[in-house]
Amino acid sequence: MTEESFSIKKYLRDVPLPFCPGCGAVTVMSEFLRAVHETGYRNLDKFVFCSGIGCSAWIPSPHFKADSVHTLHGRSIPVATGIKLMRPDVNVVVFGGDGDIVGIGLSHFIHAARRNLDIFVIMVNNMIYGMTGGQVAPTTPFKSKTTTTPYGSFEYPLDAARLAATAGAAYVARWTTAQTTELRSSLKKALELKGFRFIEAVSQCPTAFGRRAGFKNAGEMVRWLRDNAVPLEEAEKLAEDELAGKIVTGEFVQKQRPTLDKVVYSMIEEARKKVEEI
Amino acid sequence: MKKRSVENVYFWQGNEACAEAALAADCRFFAGYPITPASEIAEHLARRLPQTGGVALQMEDELAAIGAVVGASWAGAKAMTATSGPGFDLMQETIGWAFMTETPCVIVDVQRLGPSTGQATKCGQGDVMQARWGTHGDYVAIALSPNSVRETFDLTIRAFNLAEKYRTPVVLLTDEEIAHMRERVTVPFLESMEIINRRKPKPNEKMFFGSDEVPPMPSVGEGFDVAVTGSTHDEYGIRFTSDPDVHKRLVERLNGKILDHAEEIVETETYNISKCEVGIVCFGCTSRSVYDAVELAEAKGHKVGYVRLKTMWPFPEKTVKQLSKTASKIIIPEMNLKQVFYEVQRVAGDSTKVVPLNKIGGGVPITPEEMLAKIEEEIR
Ligand SMILES: Cc1ncc(C[n+]2csc(CCOP(=O)(O)OP(=O)(O)O)c2C)c(N)n1
Ligand code: SF4
Ligand SMILES: [Mg+2]
């Protein structure tokens, strides 16, 4: 590995970024690219990016100098499934928002984890439908004001990280954008693992969530994320009511199982042998 | 493993013929979700695709099935899914995405009787307009409709060829009758069939979404840094969310690349269309009764001709127009409540009387006798 210093520009096309000032998606984008660089890559040639619809889904598309497939709202994981099975040799990385990955696309997320599809899913959980202007999401904290919950959200939020772990993911971690060191080291770790890898980055959307939720600016949101993050080990000692409104961070699972492509292709080998025997 | 040369005589179901044709066309990927009357295609390919090194998956729903198909196509594989009405509904958004991203793929819709769950195991022909207008926005569909097991084989291969040639999704619009009936099929040598593959870019090419009418298509993982998006994009795949010119340029080209080649895409079977008094425009399973009815009518001395639509979309306007110039009356038998009827009316003009013959429910086909009665009613 050459000791080349990191320059984000090397990885990006010359197309203006669409994100609002202070948006957490930018943090996730740059931490991912730093992680790629620190893992030893010097370009994105070995990667294929897939994303759905939403602000966060714009992270790779068309900005990364790489193959990027910008799909429909919620459908990045099925598309990634087709790509991975036809090209098991490429690293397929999915970016998406909370609405995209665990709202409209939730079923695909669970099934891909169950199948141990060898892809890396990075979800920017800004707790809101950002792109459409701040409607309640399945991840919105209880009682938060959004444009469609003017009296406060009356639903309990979904724990995407634990869900992925239960469904069979190979690696699951959750960090906030206030924990860039931990986030980056998790990203690096996941880049080197196989199987369904999921990192949830709890993030700030100052524009569509922050203002209505009473935050003055992005900085205040990041401080709030930092102060509410509870390490997994600590959280295990706390009662449910003590955890209300907290963000449990850490690594939730790391395990190895044969990946879908490996299982499918060894089945294909068997099937072909049988035909030859006939 | 060498691909099996299918040269033999088979006793196939329409659905089996479809699955085997996909293999003959070099389909490497299938993803589906169980639904009557299409499931046999998935079942057959689940067994056969792995034998030829391909992948067949059952996904969690039809949204996922077609998504995986489009993904596989971008990974360089010929890919197909098969479904029926309710699943075809769910696929519509992604069909539009495939159109916009110029992704070759084949969607088989084995029509059953809707609306909704309707009579799920019974035959219908009610998805004709859905195949044309199912997704939103300005787009053009290609849809083919076989009327025999052998033709299901041929048109499945043609569906792949058109998809690859024009870089667009193609619908094989079959129906429960054709899909489930068995016929003796003699399949030609694989070597004698024309198999078309997408045009690939040269190493330094960068315009994968324009300039050429049908631009070359790279695969992901080949180093082209291709940016694929269903948002409006320029020739390089870069998103333009509000520029009117970029949108117009893209969408007009996407429409034009099909419509300007309608003559090549359209296939019909015609009989006696320059000498008939009464004409018939038919398609799919219903056309089989038409064959018999025409014989019966001729035995009685009537001059009858027909146009059978093998291509449903783009609509075979020229041939239907030709029929309308000789026939003073055109009957359109369909197992729905008038879909092709309006197309014929639009094309035929005022001097020809356009007569509907519709039948729905229970999957009961329009019989040759009912067809004949209609012909005689119009001749009288
Ligand atoms: C089928 C469909 N329904 C709705 C939309 C509208 N839509 C666009 S982005 C979005 C929400 C995005 O939220 P999220 O995935 O959390 O991404 P964020 O913008 O917050 O990063 C919605 C509902 C759409 N594009 N497609
Ligand atoms: S609306 Fe929110 S999520 Fe979208 S770019 Fe702006 S700050 Fe980021
Ligand atoms: Mg969001």
Written description of the protein model:
The complex is a heterodimer of chains A (278) and B (380). Chain A has helices at residues 24-38, 76-86, 98-104, 106-115, 160-167, 180-192, 206-213, 218-228, 232-235, 240-243, 260-277; strands at 47-51, 67-70, 91-97, 119-125, 171-176, 197-202, 229-231, 247-254. By secondary structure, chain A is of the alpha/beta class. Chain A has one domain (10-277): Thiamin diphosphate (ThDP)-binding fold, Pyr/PP domains (Rossmann fold), CATH 3.40.50. Chain A has an eight-stranded mixed beta sheet, sandwiched between helices. In chain A, α1 (24-38) packs across α6 (180-192) and α3 crosses α4. Chain A is globular, with a radius of gyration of 19 Å. Chain B is built from 13 helices and 16 strands. In chain B, α1 packs parallel to α6, α3 (62-74) packs parallel to α4 (85-101) and α10 (286-299) crosses α13. The model of chain B has no long low-confidence stretch (mean pLDDT 96). At the A-B interface, β2, α2, α4 and α11 of A face β2, α3, α4 and β10 of B. β2 of chain A pairs parallel with β10 of chain B, so a sheet runs across the interface. The structure holds thiamine diphosphate (TPP), iron/sulfur cluster and magnesium ion. The site of thiamine diphosphate has 17 residues of chain A, from α3. The site of iron/sulfur cluster has 12 residues of chain A, from α7.
- As a percent range, the share of strand residues of chain A is 15-25%
Question: What is CATH's topology name of chain A?
Answer: Rossmann fold
Largest interface, counted with CB-CB under 8 A?
A-B, 41 and 49 residues
According to CATH, the homologous superfamily of the largest domain in chain B is Thiamin diphosphate (ThDP)-binding fold, Pyr/PP domains
CATH A-level architecture of chain A: 3-Layer(aba) Sandwich
CATH superfamily of chain A: Thiamin diphosphate (ThDP)-binding fold, Pyr/PP domains
Detail the poorly predicted runs of chain B: none
Q: Structural class per helix/strand content of chain A?
A: alpha/beta
**Annotated CATH architecture of the largest domain in chain B:** 3-Layer(aba) Sandwich
CATH class of the largest domain in chain B: Alpha Beta
The counted number of beta strands of chain A is 8
Rg calc of chain B = 21 Å
Adjacency order of strands in the biggest sheet of chain A: 2-1-3-4-6-5-8-7
Our count of helices of chain A gives: 11
The CATH top-level class label of chain A: Alpha Beta
Mean pLDDT of chain A: 96
Which outline of chain A best applies? Answer: globular
Assembly of the depicted chains: heterodimer
